[in-house]
Design goal:
Length: about 200
Amino acid sequence: MAGATSPDAPLVVGIGGTIGGVSSTERALGIALDAVAKEGFRTRLFGGEDMARLPLYDPKAHARTPHEQDFVETVRQASALIIASPGYHGSISGVVKNALDLLEETARDSRPYLADMPVGLIATAYGWQATGSTIAALRSIVHALRGWPTPFAAAINSQLTKFDDAGGSNDDAVTDQLRMVGRQVARFVPLVATLG
């Protein structure tokens, strides 16, 4: 997914989805990224299919696959992230965690991990219970990676909310929440740039 904007516009990277096809999580993330693109930002989505190509993170590996290199280099170029995870057994999914673990490759960068980056958060789950704990886990991980979670995070009960192929949902309030995640990320990018 890419916004129709200037090639010099700041980049916002979306990470999320599940293995085995386009999921409600990935569709929710797409709505948030569309809102970012409407604010004039470039976007790049790493969905379930992309994350499935990442091998399990091995901190002792001497070389990285082309998919791992692409992921890390894209995050290095990003001004902000949006992370979306399904709630699996009360926390984030393994594929999302594996992708985030790979950011250890940036530990020695001048801007390590997600330092000073706004990060929007989305959690989907079949029921409400896991949405809160999944968002809490995402916030903890983003803090550990030195990022700034945006004030609002979207919690989506996929038992009630259904997404369509056209990029919408059956619940306007949920769509508005996802757009708010995108808009908050977009609004915080210029603020962070003034601090640098």
